[in-house]
Amino acid sequence: MSHPLARLATRLGYGARQLPRLVWYAGHGYAMQRLARQVKRRNAPRSALPLPGQTRLYRDMAALFGRDLANVEAGLYPLPADHDGALPTLLARSRLFFDDLPEIHRRRESGGHSEVREDGRHGVRPDYYLQNFHFQSGGWMTEDSAARYDTQVEVLFKGTANAMRRQALPELHEIFAGRDQRELRLLDIGCGTGRFLDSVKQVWPRLPVLGLDMSEAYLRHARRHLRRWSWTRLALANAEAIPLPDVSQDAVTGIFLFHELPPQVRRGVIAECARVLKRGGRLVLVDSLQRGDAPDYDGLLDIFPQNYHEPYFASYLDEDFAAIAWRAGLTHVRDATAFVSKVMVFDKVG
Ligand SMILES: C[S@@+](CC[C@H](N)C(=O)[O-])C[C@H]1O[C@@H](n2cnc3c(N)ncnc32)[C@H](O)[C@@H]1O
Questions:
Q1: pTM, rounded to two decimals
Q2: Has residue 40 got a pLDDT over 90?
């Protein structure tokens, strides 16, 4: 049991780090809603399913932060540093975010989501990948898109995205505890701008990690973001063909990736994760809630792909991950919800 003063310092430290983020990103969300009211939507999103009220949303956000803090107090990870950057960086990203809103609105109104594919300069990448996901400019393919991404995600989740990502850490702690981190291997597929790997390195600085993504721009951004850490590699590759030997990884993670993949690709990627995992290794996924996980969120899940180009989200909502993983040789250990996300855990046993 820690000293009450030490506990108070941890709680104050946590609040001092998380509250300003919450205000900053929720403030962006509020400004975005005000702007949205000024432009008329032709096809306003609708759902006949139940929607969570504001009170429920704020209660669940508070529960997520409460769990994040409890994990820190339990020694599962240190007080998190979100490394959002200094004020000039934040302001530059904020500008990029607001600059793209009219373009997003234009694509949303016209159903435009294939500019990336039509651009035709993107080498050998699968068709499903070359889309303007979220109606964002550049899809996954440009520097601006990578620089804008973290602000977009944090605004969407009102400043809770990193806290949701961190809910994968206790699942890794369970299999890493008591082992020499230098001897372990972790692979993060669809690592994007490297925010999750940053959290991983805050707990296990000497753990060799590999981040894999199909976007050069996002990997460049991740490389800059992760330069404070050693034992960190990044690779341009398709998660359908992971460039690693069989049975070589102790853990594989995939954060906010699987709802972006078509059903067949999901199956192929999970089979690849199973192939590279060692026996006793663990796959941890963090992604959106699925239908029925929290029934009063079902309307929100129904509306989300209408607002943001998410072509595979509807199929994601009913996907049976335990069954796919089982066929690939992985055993479902548990699911846990965390605000609008869920953590799914699978082990390679036997
Ligand atoms: C929604 S973002 C998630 C990024 C990051 N994991 C996070 O926590 O924010 C999806 C990422 O997956 C990458 N991606 C999508 N399909 C992929 C594939 N088949 N192979 C590798 N990366 C992929 C995209 O380039 C993008 O960076």
A1: 0.94
A2: no
